[in-house]
Design brief:
The protein is built from 5 helices and 6 strands; from the N terminus they run E-H-E-H-H-E-H-E-E-H-E. By secondary structure, the protein is α+β, with helices and mostly antiparallel strands.
């Protein structure tokens, strides 16, 4: 509740339980989210009382997002996170386009993603990479199985061209839905 921005004027002590949980999710923004959450919660405890306390419980207290957030080293986290993303080729050093194939039938979603991969691979633009197809980290939502393909490149226009060719060159089965997410906020 505190992390969501609610204001409690008498708040002097805040606890963050299992602060490292998000770090184990397969999303390139996991460290950023963890650091942000700890920093935001810490700000709530000291808003009205300069001696406010924050307790952070973690199985991985030495991991940089947690250690740097607890130490209040925002610039150090920012520099380290940017360097990591540059090495791995994730935003802001690249653009992403995420295609999700969902269906109430697992084999249909999987086959649709495989077929889409073939089309995308045949029209791959220079400087673009295709990650997947694979099951989404949260593989089932609302009774639908989900598979994904990530298109990655330094510019968005080649990724959009590839996606447009897919849309023109492929008709998904009636029970398969394709979602397109440009520069996704989450990969879960």
């Amino acid at each position: 509740m505190v992390a969501k921005g609610l204001n409690f004027p008498s708040l002097q002590l805040v606890g963050v339980i299992l602060a490292d949980t998000a770090l184990h999710l397969p999303d390139f923004r996991a460290a950023e989210r963890t650091f942000s959450m700890i920093t935001q919660v810490a700000g709530r405890a000291g808003r009205y009382f300069p001696d406010g306390k924050v307790l952070v419980q973690s199985y991985s207290p030495d991991m940089p997002p947690i250690a740097l957030a607890v130490s209040g080293k925002t610039e150090a986290f920012y520099s380290q996170e940017l360097e990591q993303r540059k090495i791995l080729g994730f935003p802001p050093f690249s653009r992403l386009l995420r295609l999700i194939f969902r269906s109430s039938k697992q084999d249909a979603a999987e086959q649709a993603s495989d077929s889409a991969f073939e089309i995308l691979n045949s029209c791959r633009e220079e400087g673009c990479s295709i990650l997947g197809p694979c099951e989404c980290p949260i593989s089932m939502v609302a009774g639908n199985y989900r598979y994904q393909i990530l298109l990655r490149g330094t510019k968005i226009s080649p990724l959009q061209k590839m996606a447009a060719r897919l849309v023109k060159g492929y008709t998904a089965p009636a029970h398969v839905y394709i979602e397109v997410d440009v520069d996704p906020v989450s990969l879960l």
